[in-house]
Design a protein that fits this description.
alpha/beta, Rossmann fold, elongated, Glycosyltransferase family 1 protein, Glyco_trans_1
Length: about 375
Amino acid sequence: MQLCLSSGWGGLEMYPSRIIPELARQGWQVYGLALSGSRVADSMRDAGITPLTVASKGRALLGVRRILAYLATHDIGVLHCHKSSDLRLGALLATLRPSLRLLFTDHMGVTRPKRDLYHRWAYGRVTRLLSISDATRARNLQAFPLPAERIRRLYLGIDPAPYAPRLDLKEREGLRRELGIPDGAIAIGMPGRLTHGKGQDTWLEALSGLQHARPGLAWHGVLIGGLAVSEGSDEAYVAELKALSETLGLADRVTFTGFRRDLPRLFEALDIVCVPSRNEAFGLTVIEVMAAAKAVIGADSGAIPELLDRETGRLADPGSPAAWTTAMAELADDHALRERLGNAARQRVLDEFSLAAHVGALIGEYQEGAGAS
């Protein structure tokens, strides 16, 4: 059972619906537990299952007998939590149903110690804590009251097929015009939620630096991400970014796309993609860009250096717009380099970061010490 009692919508909340079809393909019967009316519940339905739903986290705790009966009826032996606040319910269920294997994936990257009495009880019921990168595991080892052997690194994965190029030349040129990219310009994109810490301000300042350092270079910026709270963004920060764009003289050279569902196709319209997030626990966007065979510049912080090296992309200090300007200029000047890096990046995703491989390893964690379900 995938447990995610969140009313939000981000990578953490999307994860269960991403793995459910692959778990089913690999022979597992999957169940879900989510909040009534949440996007998580809707996404689970879209992924092919009908989740058990509760009105709130409090109602879930009060209705624990109902959930226990559901677990027993469906002979569910594994409970996989994705949000730390859900561990209260997960640990209670594991206490009342001792045969239940409780797993928790730390999608966010813990930032403070969790070793008080409550956390020792809750994490004490966790069979396996899964860290999504080596950087995250290092923090987990420091923060959680668990022995090292119960904290394992399991990289995330994606289905690379949707990111393979599909547009013909005419379609690609049409999409570029739609995005405001002038003919012959180098398109420099940045995808992601428009929130503090993702680095859009650094990216804009780097583009301003590129404008001054290379006045003869034809380029256009494409900022991809929702502009409203309902789309996962910080509206006050969006306003700051638009004001910064005006102040830097970039209003005519940067397109704010708003929320888009066709991200793999947008990548096809771009030449360079930047991910300057300051402290990614993994960097899912990075491997999506890599799967699209695009030249990517990532932040030299968090887990991103585990994904990129000099053969597959470039790294830059997320606190230094000048470093990003330099990296952008290098890639803008060399079409062959962009092609070589992009092709090598896609191959690495195929070799190391596929969803099938991720789920296969996850199933291994589900099964260890217990029978298959």
